[in-house]
Every structure is written in C-alpha cells, then in structure tokens.
Specification:
Elements lengths: L1 H14 L7 H5 L4 H14 L8 E6 L5 H16 L3 E6 L4 H13 L4 E4 L8 H9 L4 E4 L9 E7 L1 H15 L9 E6 L6 H19 L3 E2 L7 H4 L6 H15 L7 E4 L2 H13 L10 E2 L6 H9 L4 E4 L2 H17 L20 E4 L2 E4 L3 H6 L6 H5 L1
Parallel strand pairs: 1-2, 1-3, 3-4, 4-5, 5-11, 6-7, 6-8, 8-9
Antiparallel strand pairs: 10-12
Helix pairs in contact: 3-4, 4-13, 7-8, 10-11
Bound molecules: beta-D-glucopyranose (BGC).
C-alpha cells in the first residue's frame, strides 16, 4: 500500500512540475532502512500527502529506550506520509494515559495508535473513541476487553518466550546435561498480555527441565503469578534478585537469570554485582528482551548474555499500514487471525519475528541491520 501511496504522490508531484528525486519510487517497495530514505525525500517535498489527517500515538513510557524509538519511528513515518502526529508518553501512569487519550479524542484525532500502560484500563476511553468514530490500532501490546480496536501490530510474543527458552536450552545443552543448573525467573507485568504469552512460550521449552531436575529453581517461584513484576520495573527485578540471592543462594551459585526484559537484566546485574559475582568467573547466563543499546553493550562486555532483537522500524512500518487501512480504506497485511483474543474479539494482527542476539551474532543482526552503529556500541 505504501508503495502505491508513494507512487501516486510522485505522479501528483510530477504533474505539478515539481522537481523530485527518484527516492520514493525506488525505495517505496522496501521496508526498514529504505523506507527511511523515502521518508526523508517525501518530507523534503513538504506536501501534505494524507490530507493532514491527525494520528494520535499514545506510548507507555520513556523510561525504557525501546518506547522512545517506537514513538520516534511512528512519528517520522506518519509525518512522511503527510499525517499530523500527536505523540504522548504516559510515564507508566494509567490515569495519565487515560487523560491523554481523552484529550486526543477532544482534539479531533482521526485515528488512535495505543501502546497501553495497563491493557485493560482503557475500556471506557476506547468506547468514547468508538462513539466518536475514531478507529484504534493496538501497538505492540494488545488492548483487552474492548471491541473498539481494529488491528494489532506486534511481535510474536509467545515466540519471544520460546526464543529465550531455546537459547537457555542450547547454551547449557540441557538436552544432554549431566549436571543441574540453578535458575530464577523475572517475568513481565501482569497487566500486559505480552508478558503472559512470553511466559507461556518460555515454559513450553523449560518446564520439562524443571520437571526432570535439570533446572532447579531454589526459590520455588516458577509460576507467572509468582514471578511477574508490575509495570516491568527494573527496581522490582533488582529487589527480587537480591532477595533470591540472600535467601536461597548463600551456599550455592545462581546459574541462570531468565528475564523477560533488558531492564530486568540491568536489575539482576546490579544485584549480582552487589553479591560479589564476577563477569568471566561465576557470572550467570542472563537473558533479556528488546536489544536496547545498553543491553547490547552489556552483551559485548559479557554482563548480559543475550537479548531479543525487535526491529521497531519494522513494527512501525506495519502499524502505519494499519493506520492507512482505517483512514484511507486500504487493506493492511495481516498474518495472524487466531492468537489475539482480547475477550471481546480476535483482533486481526501482524506479528513481526523476534530474533535472539548474543555476542556471536549482534554484528550481523544489529550492526549490519543498521540498528546501532559500531560507534554507538563502542561509546
Ligand atoms: C514489550 C517488550 C518490552 C516490555 C517492557 C512489552 O509489552 O513487548 O518489548 O520489553 O513491554 O517495556
């Protein structure tokens, strides 16, 4: 669709006798980096391509780098297509997000893109949007208990958990292990559907090893309820890790921190340093999610073992096609119509593929993929 819109724009510009480069026509077909080039060229033309329709983007927090990237990618890509963008962050405050969305509706938004702080807390404001005829796209986190949502752009959330589980399974060769390994779990926020899906994917791989004693969780906290951390709090993960280390690992070492988020990996790192663990000696395998810049640096330095790379440029591309679908009447690409039942409907979704990254493949995936430069990673 983007390709079609861009080529229509190009034709229009040429008919108007404006000088344009070959950028949009050449790059319109490609996603990611090439789209960025297209955006720049389109932006330079200063032509309102989408009739100046307003897209309001509600993001959860700026406390984690990924959401800052998500917000700026969305803004850039939408503005390049001629939409007016109102981007707001709620800093993990549920009420603040409700107020922001109310204001967006009052300010005449034509479409809402929402990455929720609490996926079930927006039901009333979503109903208001529906009443006002404003379509909603769920961004990364499913919006629960509402029939006001049209589409959902995300990553394969269960696949994130499976990828983390398989990484642990392969790194420790659990299939053939003669020894047992100690493990503790740090799972995501209970008000985020992604967190439960990740847990389910992770346990699909690891539960058999907990059952046969290859993995030993000394705290005994293996259920989602016992390991989830409200609002994905880094401090919460650090506190849990400190408690586990003092309570259960005074005479034994912790071998694996199975965490669902780079922020949790930072929290575990601080707790482990405090308890005297040393990188290169007795440092545990630590997992994460998002491949944040800091996490990627930690992977290079050895204080985090892996993360899940989620290319937020790709997610923004997919979400933008959904915005275009609801505003311009086009058809977005959908690849899942089964998994994401929000309690009111099964939301048509596009799932991007998450990729496990570690020190062996970060160059190929992250640097060659143009996500971070070597220079960013070196500083
Ligand atoms: C996202 C993750 C992110 C987490 C914490 C989840 O909803 O899917 O990528 O790590 O929120 O921000």
């Amino acid at each position: 669709m983007k390709k079609r819109v861009l080529s229509l724009m190009l034709t229009a510009l040429m008919t108007m006798g404006l000088a344009v480069g070959c950028g949009p026509a050449d790059t319109g077909a490609a996603p990611d980096a090439a789209t960025d080039t297209a955006s720049e060229t389109v932006e330079d033309s200063e032509t309102p391509l989408a009739g100046g329709k307003k897209v309001a983007v509600a993001m959860p927090t700026q406390s984690s780098e990924r959401w800052i990237n998500d917000g700026s990618n969305m803004k850039e890509k939408l503005e390049a297509l001629g939409y007016e963008v109102d981007l707001q962050y709620a800093e993990d405050d549920v009420q603040a997000q409700v107020s922001q969305i109310e204001n967006m509706i009052a300010a005449g938004a034509d479409c809402l893109v929402i990455a929720a702080v609490d996926s079930s807390a927006l039901v009333n404001v979503e109903a208001q949007a529906k009443e006002a005829g404003i379509p909603i796209i769920a961004y990364d986190r499913l919006l629960m208990d509402t029939d006001a949502v049209s589409y959902y752009a995300t990553f394969d959330n269960k696949g994130v958990g499976t990828a983390i589980g398989k990484y642990i399974e392969e790194s420790k060769d659990l299939k053939n292990a003669k020894d047992s390994y100690t493990i503790e779990f740090f799972m995501g926020s209970p008000d985020d559907n992604n967190a439960v899906m990740l847990y389910n994917g992770l346990m699909e791989v690891l539960q058999p090893y907990l059952d046969n004693g290859t993995l030993v969780c000394k705290s005994g906290r293996t259920s989602f309820e016992d390991t989830c951390i409200l609002r994905w709090s880094q401090e919460g993960a650090q506190k849990n890790c400190e408690d586990y280390l003092t309570g259960f690992y005074a005479n034994d070492k912790l071998d694996i921190c199975a965490t669902a988020f780079d922020g949790f990996a930072y929290g575990c790192k601080a707790a482990l340093e405090g308890a005297g663990y040393k990188v290169g000696e007795d440092w545990p395998l630590i997992t994460g999610q998002d491949a944040e810049l800091m996490a990627t640096k930690n992977i290079i330095a050895g204080s985090q073992t892996m993360s899940i790379y989620k290319d937020t440029r790709l997610l923004a591309d997919k979400c933008v096609t959904m915005v275009q679908a609801v505003l311009e009447g086009s058809e977005p690409e959908i690849n899942d119509t089964e998994q994401y039942d929000n309690g009111k409907l099964v939301v048509p979704s596009y799932l991007c593929t998450p990729v496990a990254v570690d020190k062996d493949n970060y160059k190929e995936i992250i640097v060659d993929g143009g996500y971070y430069t070597e220079e960013q990673l070196a500083n």
